[in-house]
Amino acid sequence: MISQSRNKCIFHISYISIYYNNCMISYDYYRIFYYVASSGSFTNAAKLLNNSQPNITRCISNLEAQLGCRLFIRTRGGVTLTSAGKELYRHVSAAVVQLDAGEAAVNSEIGLKSGMVTITATDAGMRLILLPAITEFRKKYPKIRFRITSMNTPPAIDQVEMGMADFAVVTDPLSLPKTCRSTVLSDMKERLYGTEEIRKAAEKETSLLQLMNHFPLVTMNTGSSTREYYELFFLKHHIPFRPAMEASSLEQVGAAIAAGLGIGFLPEKLAEEARYPGTLQEIPIRETLPIRKLHLIESGSRILPPAAHAVISLLKNR
């Protein structure tokens, strides 16, 4: 049966009947039997099924009468199964579990026919992870809508923690609150880039310190995880961090580099897919750049809609 409540379709398995000795037995009786047997008492089953104890008792009595045998032994502490009850439970438990799984799957499919997924993401997370995944997802679920906000890692995580976003895709370094959890989705290799002219001029300047003394640095704004990462990287190698130009997105960093305004660090994949083919040239440096990570950030306590769960599942299994 499919019921309609506040414009939300919910599939319920009910009104299923099973014939036994020419007697039609309601599936609801078997379901109630399963919960009584699993929980060990009529009271516990009533709470689990949001029903009354007298009604639970009545249904079990009807089931026993229709089957012609006792299923439970009543005790002060609750109930225990008879030998017939144990045999019935062995079969019924498997059926109930499968039917519950089927019901959940149907409800999930219904939920994916509409809805909104709210995401926060860094520029790299958006370009390298989210856009390809959403393109794939919408081929199967074209009616799901997305609200994506591009922001730096710290505020993106804050949005998830406050319940303003279903999840986030961000770059490290990151500081994770106790209420959130992180899953690494992908590695992110970065390289130093400049124009062909700058690359030729820099051929003999193999150390980063020498390059900084000769060419202006283009980087992300203060507050971004990328800016924080390179400030720490320069500090570790005792190199003064003095950007000549700051940008609010990696695309702007790439555009400035392509225009010959300086050198800068970009994800390797982004540079290869840039809108300036042949313009961005890698500049080899002596220092080794550690491989950074792209992370999926989820709330550990918030219940998400089916569509958000489906997108997260896709991201984790790509």
UniProtKB/TrEMBL annotation:
In which domain of life is the source organism classified? Bacteria
From the Swiss-Prot or TrEMBL record, what is one GO molecular function term?
Answer: DNA-binding transcription factor activity
Q: What is this protein called?
A: LysR family transcriptional regulator
Q: Name one Pfam family in it.
A: LysR_substrate
The record's comment on protein family reads: Belongs to the LysR transcriptional regulatory family.
Question: What keywords is this UniProt entry annotated with?
Answer: DNA-binding, Transcription, Transcription regulation
- Report domain HTH lysR-type positions: 31-82
